[in-house]
Design a protein that fits this description.
The protein is globular. With 206 residues, the chain is an all-alpha fold. It has 10 helices and no strands. The longest helix is centred in the middle third of the chain and has 19 residues, at 95-113. Helix 3 runs antiparallel to helix 8 (157-167). It has helices spanning 27-39, 42-50, 53-63, 68-85, 95-113, 117-120, 135-152, 157-167, 173-180, 184-202.
Length: 206
């Protein structure tokens, strides 16, 4: 449920005596969030979101299996929701964790409402990186990236989400546990199994 995405973990960084909430450890972002909440200035919101848009788009790619139209619609709805609800952020977790949890819950809710899901399940990656310069090496690198992207779509949504959160977004095991509601030991087990599975798929050892 989306409401779950608004419930921040009551976690603090550092030692037991640490007084600074996790979400306030970046003074620039903290100031920006507080300023936006008090003014509702769209320019401030755009500045705040700029650093988090790549994360959101990778998340939406995972949830919507690369279906561009669904991803674009979901991005607009999620940003509109964040614009309204960012005042509920209490700095108890990092803003990145709050944002990801909120966006993930909203994206899954939108996915459940989709009426064209079966057709979109087969959509291929539209945003594959372009080859940079020269011939054979760049071609092979691009081909491998595209192969990995396609194989990612063959993982279950949970496997894909957890793998991307850890290996692409850099979330800790504890943060992933907070976002997904899974125990940390389970997260580690899923990560290990998924990495081996993806490697075997990419290398043709399925």
């Amino acid at each position: 449920m989306e409401a779950d995405g608004l419930m921040e973990e009551r976690a603090y960084a550092g030692t037991a005596g640490e007084a600074v909430p996790v979400g306030e450890r970046d003074p620039v972002e903290t100031k920006l969030i507080r300023h936006f909440v008090s003014t509702r200035d769209p320019a401030l919101f755009e500045e705040l979101m700029r650093a988090h848009l790549p994360l959101l788009r990778r998340l939406l790619f995972s949830v919507f299996n690369g279906a561009r139209e669904d991803m674009e619609d979901a991005e607009q709805e999620i940003l509109a929701g964040i614009y309204t609800d960012v005042g509920r952020y209490r700095f108890r977790s990092s803003f990145k964790t709050f944002f990801y949890r909120y966006a993930r819950n909203k994206a899954i809710d939108l996915l459940r409402k989709a009426t064209r899901l079966r057709r979109r399940e087969t959509a291929l990656l539209q945003n594959a990186p372009r080859a940079v310069s020269s011939p054979e090496d760049e071609f092979l690198k691009r081909e491998r990236r595209e192969n990995v992207s396609k194989r990612l779509l063959e993982l279950s949504r949970e496997e894909r989400d957890i793998l991307l959160m850890k290996d692409v977004e850099g979330f800790s095991i504890a943060e992933i546990s907070s976002v997904t509601g899974r125990k940390e030991g389970t997260i580690k087990s899923i990560l290990h199994r998924t990495r081996e599975k993806l490697f075997a798929m990419v290398e043709g050892g399925r």
